[in-house]
Amino acid sequence: MKLHLSTPPNRLIKADIEITGSKSESNRSLLLRALYPNISIKNLSNSDDAKVMEMGLQTRKGTVDIHHAGTAMRFLTGYFASQAGTDVTLTGSQRMTERPVKVLVEALRRLGSDIEYEKNEGYPPIRIKGKKLNERRVSLPADISSQYISSLLLIAPSLENGLELELVGKITSVPYIKMTLGLLSEIGAVNSFKGNVIKVEPKTMVRPTVLTVESDWSSASYFYSILALCEIGSEIKLSAYKKNSLQGDSVLADIYEDFGVQTSFSDTHILLKKIGNHQQKELQYDLANAPDIAQTIAATCFGLGVGCHLTGLHTLKIKETDRLEALHTELGKMGANISVTDKTLTLMPSSTLKKDVAIDTYNDHRMAMAFAPLALKTSLYINDAEVVSKSYPDFWKDLQFLQLAVREAE
Ligand SMILES: O=C(O)C1=C[C@@H](OP(=O)(O)O)[C@@H](O)[C@H](O)C1
Ligand SMILES: C=C(OP(=O)(O)O)C(=O)O
């Protein structure tokens, strides 16, 4: 599906939008519920990634295809490895077979797991024969993806001796590890994270517990971007969010103050208000703790003609696509003066925004959603716009509440 987005005549926006549950919290909660049936979940994400996770967790034998879902791939690897009697081949989209799992597989093997690569060493598809794991200690590199660590932590309380992880190297995407530990605490699983050591104690039973998934902060980023690009006085109410979030992307509330967007929190929602314009000429952010909002911020800066220097982007090359290359190409097509390395992105201030460029999305939901707000500045096409369903299936429907003119192009 190719969409055409045109600039609305009025850039003063008022809207009230309910966003689906966080896919990260959902996929963790689903796994914990599979281990401890006393758990129930509220506000589960309606994303493709949560659906494939739910489907995967019901499988004991045969092939599980998790499509593009990185968390499902990594979390199910740990889950299947620890479930005696399962025999599953875990695979995904073409891109998933290029996203590494070696660090996780090796750590699980050291804990006693039986996992084999079916094609390329270090990458899915993998065949997992579940076994009871009772080793307690393992060390693993922490600088490639936090999902490997979360995968081990999620099964940790269900293991006879719990787990003690020694994290080697600079720890990346730390808030996602803390999210996992936060959820373990919610179900009463004792854990600690000191220096580079994480300990989780075993837990055989969980009392009836409701895990309420907060709405997705990465999805909220597109509305922050929209407000940054529209007129002072605009406001958007988003639910259901809370101040003490488990999601690291809630740092958006601080970052977008630089763009004149103010966030106020209530019990159930956040109210975003455009109260001023950006001040600085060049903005700098280290996004090692919030990699999923890099595309949004780069597109916002481009739309405003502001320069930015983004660092801590070393994980972007192994996500749904090589996001650094994708941003370089697509922002470049729109007229940006942009350069990237394998961990940084630099955008020069500029005011050129070409009209009616067709943005390629590379099977990456965030490419589609990050570019959409640019419609407030110029008309553009989004190719394969259905990719948004990976995390936010209602994205295009919700954009209509903002009177953004979205129509199918062909
Ligand atoms: O644990 C999670 O839910 C996630 C961790 C992050 O991945 P990395 O740790 O690979 O950066 C993030 O990019 C991804 O969207 C979700
Ligand atoms: C990187 C992402 O997802 P995953 O790694 O779970 O595929 C994302 O949603 O931006």
TrEMBL record:
EC number(s) per entry: 2.5.1.19
Gene3D superfamilies listed in its UniProt record: Enolpyruvate transferase domain
Localization (cell): Cytoplasm
Binding site residues for phosphoenolpyruvate: K23, G70, R99, Q147, R323, R366, K390
Reaction catalysis annotation: 3-phosphoshikimate + phosphoenolpyruvate = 5-O-(1-carboxyvinyl)-3-phosphoshikimate + phosphate
Binding-site list for 3-phosphoshikimate: K23, S24, R28, S145, S146, Q147, S173, D292, K319
Residue span(s) of domain Enolpyruvate transferase: 63-399
Record-linked InterPro entries: Enolpyruvate_Tfrase_dom, Enolpyruvate_Tfrase_sf, EPSP_synthase, EPSP_synthase_CS, RNA3'P_cycl/enolpyr_Trfase_a/b
Residues annotated as the enzyme's active site: D292 (proton acceptor)
Keywords: Amino-acid biosynthesis, Aromatic amino acid biosynthesis, Cytoplasm, Transferase
Pathway info: Metabolic intermediate biosynthesis; chorismate biosynthesis; chorismate from D-erythrose 4-phosphate and phosphoenolpyruvate: step 6/7
Entry-linked HAMAP family: EPSP_synth
Family: Belongs to the EPSP synthase family.
Subunit architecture: Monomer.
Function field: Catalyzes the transfer of the enolpyruvyl moiety of phosphoenolpyruvate (PEP) to the 5-hydroxyl of shikimate-3-phosphate (S3P) to produce enolpyruvyl shikimate-3-phosphate and inorganic phosphate.
Stated name of the protein: 3-phosphoshikimate 1-carboxyvinyltransferase
Organism listed in the record: Pricia mediterranea
Taxonomy of the source species: Bacteria, Pseudomonadati, Bacteroidota, Flavobacteriia, Flavobacteriales
